[in-house]
Amino acid sequence: MSPPPSPPRRPQRRAATSRPASYDESLDDAALQAYLGDATSRRVRRLRRLSAEERQRETETEALIALSLGFPIDELHPEERPLLPSHIAEAPNDYIVVRNHILASWRADPGAPLPRARVLETVAASYDHLVAAAHGYLVREGHINFGVSAAFPAAPPPDAALQGPVAPGAAVVVVGAGLAGLAAARQLLRFGLRVLVLEGRGRPGGRVYTSRLGEDKAAVELGGSVITGIHANPLGVLARQLGIPLHKVRDRCPLYYPDGRTVDTKLDRSVDLVFNTLLDHATRLREFLKEAAERISLGEGIEKLRRLYHVARSDDERMILDWHFANLEFSNAGCLSELSLAYWDQDDPYEMGGDHCFLAGGNSRLIDALCDGVPVLYEKTVKRIEHGADGVSVTVEGGQVFKADMVLCTVPLGVLKSGSIVFDPELPEQKLGAVQRLGFGLLNKVAMVFPHVFWDEDIDTFGCLNKDSSKRGEYFLFYSYHTVSGGAVLIALVAGEAALEFEKVDPVVALHRVLAILRGIFGPKGVTVPDPIQSVCTRWGSDPFCWGSYSHIRVGSSGTDYDILAESVNDRLFFAGEATNRAYPATMHGALLSGLREASKIQRAAESILNSDQKKYSLPKSLRPPNSALEDLFSEPDLAFGRFSFVFSSVTPDDPEALGLAQISLDNSSLLQPKNHEPKEDQKDQDPAAEKIIFKTFHLYANVSRELADQLHNSRDDDKGRLGLLCKDLSVRLMGYDFACDVFSDMILSILRARKARKLLQGPKDVKISLL
Predict the structure, then answer these.
(1) Looking at the record, which segments are called Disordered (predicted)?
(2) Rounded to an integer, what distance in angstroms lies between the CA atom of residue 648 and that of residue 155?
(3) How far is residue 559's CA from residue 255's CA, in Å, rounded to a whole number?
């Protein structure tokens, strides 16, 4: 503890006669230390159990985990440095070790929050300031303590339903209920902001869409389907929190000629080597061409190399190579003739490691979990977004207007390209340029549910070659979901130029073509291909809520355009989505991570607005805690034992994440005087009130969580031991009544509103939620 600053110049809260017994805070540190004694923190003693060699191995393992999460092993992340105190950023070695330790600790058990207090138990006391910095950064930026389990509810502040713009939490409109929008909204609610999501469709998920087909309602992925790389993937964290099993997409993918013959394994591997060698040579070509490579497409470069080296000259070799090209176009949702030779693979260094996986029961399970507790209005198509110094105004089709402090736009790049949303004022020229330069390609599907599985049950994918190079992406790859969907589900993919043409094809014709391919493959093997029970053809390119599938770097664009698209406008208008994530574009996890990123940016912007716009956000005198508020709160504590009482600022005070205040009742005889102390007669004569003060009870206060309160409650120590745990082991600062009233004024108001909310919840449940 350290002495408080000089008292603020504000009117006295209560008459002096009604003030509870206080004390001189400047003398408290020494007195409290004398009371607690010089016992070493139990935390430090536990740390001694690891040998230096064991600790070094643990540090190296944690560094590798941090690396898999996108953090450099031995330096700060570029986005991390400006958010840290300068003295830490300038000498970050110890901080990096602590940061990596926190990341690894939470990833070991992501189903529960990792509070700072728990980290402090595993780190030497001398690093407490580093724990505070690292833990605060990682929580704020969404690297830990995020998710969808019961331990991470989308919990808005208790006063959101009761107060309008006077609430400390700013109001945010999120446009779009896809992965990015839902992740951001959920995180913002946990930060204490007020959030409303507007979704144009009649369902959540956006381009992640699990349809239920057939009599058994099998889960069929019409949009984003594969978790690409399970190592460190946040979608894997969500699945783990929900206890949803993942199915590894098995590596074996046989290829078939149009006449049903199986491609020889040796030939398949040979052409696969040719394909990868061409890509390697393309990399060398762009290094040689330097800036000139920015004006050349990947398709043009590869075709020149193919001719130069005279590879894939036979019809069979050319068909197999075309299949690999189609697979590359599928990965990028764009034709090779559009992809930039210079930058098409700029995100490769960040690729998630590990297996590619299907989620049992469909990705809608993640969407549903993200939606839980998040206020979403459906069929609200946004047409106009006005943004300025006084806030934002979002107009939907039909003229309804939503006003807030900030707006997060998560619509797909295709919607931004279409101009269907009017921004007022217009977006900066640099951002408009990025929107136009980036590519937004197309992938379509024919999804079918059959009466039974007639294909090889030991594979998850198989491919089909095409004699026509211009149609190489037409039904070139089939995904089998029978292991995870609850039915015999087969999906044919349509990529590249074929995906564009597919938009014009009648669904019945498309289905007949797919069935003809399947019967051509399995018929010669004596297998009867039945008609599907139900089928669906996607039309993502014609969908006005996306106008395509996912982004890629087109000729003339670069990874910088992703960063430009992610930039906010005057801390009022923010952007998220896969096309704003330079490291993970065109992926589901990239969308989710962008939402967490923007939630952090919005939180910082809200704090800035709160500090700079005192007229709008400061608490007027009428909203300051009443004179006796702090004292009255503890007359009915949420938890009490021994000398400890607690009150919490949550509608559900038993929530482990609930924040609140602790009151520790002490008396001067036990705290401020040494044991066996007896005042001398001359001291009594000099200060007649001395003996009276010695026996007077007073209170100390601290900011705590419910989890910490429960930890103290469950401790086997006596009250003195608990106080030692609080002050020494957990480094919690205690303060007196006056200082607590000043520092915790917002918390006191929040607790008062939480109690009011509890009473309302016990009565009629017709409270209206107001965004502003």
Answers:
(1) 1-27
(2) 14
(3) 34
Tally of domains within the chain: 4
pLDDT score of 622: 41
Q: What is the DSSP string of 135-194?
A: HHHHHHTTSSS-SSSTTS-----TTTTT-STTSSSPEEEEE--BHHHHHHHHHHHHHT-E
pLDDT more than 90, % of the chain: 63
Amino acid in the structure at residue 689? A
Q: How far apart are CA 242 and CA 460, in angstroms?
A: 24
Distance between CA atoms of residues 238 and 246, nearest Å: 11
Kindly state whether residues 738 and 634 are assigned to the same domain: yes
Cα(724)–Cα(35) distance, integer angstroms: 9
DSSP strands (E only) in 176-240: 194-199, 210-213, 218-221, 227-228
Contact predicate 326/586, CB 8 Å: no
Per-residue pLDDT tens digits for 627-676: 678 888 998 999 999 999 999 988 778 877 788 899 998 876 554 444 44
Q: Read out DSSP for 497-516?
A: HHHHHHTTS-HHHHHHHHHH
Backbone φ, ψ for residue 104 (5° rounding): -65, -35
- My answer on whether 117 and 166 are in the same domain is no
Which CATH number does the domain housing residue 75 bear?
A: 1.10.10.10
Residue 94 located in a structural domain: yes
Distance CA 266, CA 312 (A): 14
| 510/656 same-domain check | no
- 277 and 133 in one domain? no
**pTM, full prediction:** 0.77
Query: Which amino acid is residue 631, in one-letter code?
Result: E
Residue 430 lies in a domain: yes
| 102 burial level (CB within 10 Å; 0-12, 13-18, 19+) | buried
**Residue 195 belongs to domain with CATH number:** 3.50.50.60
- Report, as an integer, the average pLDDT of 537-554: 97
Answer yes or no: is pLDDT of 550 > 60.
yes
Q: What is the CATH number of the domain that holds 288?
A: 3.90.660.10
Among 155, 146, 153, 177, which Cα is nearest to 240's?
Answer: 146
pLDDT at 157 over 70: no
Distance CA 301, CA 274 (A): 15
Which residues have a Cβ under 8 Å from the Cβ of 388 and sit 6 or more positions away? 425, 570, 572
Distances (CA, A) of 366 to 9, 237, 362, 371, 578: 51, 10, 8, 9, 17
490 & 381 share domain: no
- Which residues form the domain of 175? 158-207+361-439+553-609
In this structure, the number of other CB atoms found within 10 A of the CB of residue 105 comes to: 17
345 shares its domain with 366: no
- Distance from C-alpha of 660 to C-alpha of 650, rounded to nearest angstrom: 8
User: Is the CA virtual torsion 162, 166, 167, 173 positive or negative?
Assistant: positive
Distance between CA 565 and CA 573 in Å, rounded?
A: 12
Question: Residue 7 falls within a domain, yes or no?
Answer: no
pLDDT computed for residue 50 by the predictor: 67
The helix or strand, by DSSP H or E, that contains position 477, with its residue range, turns out to be strand 474-480
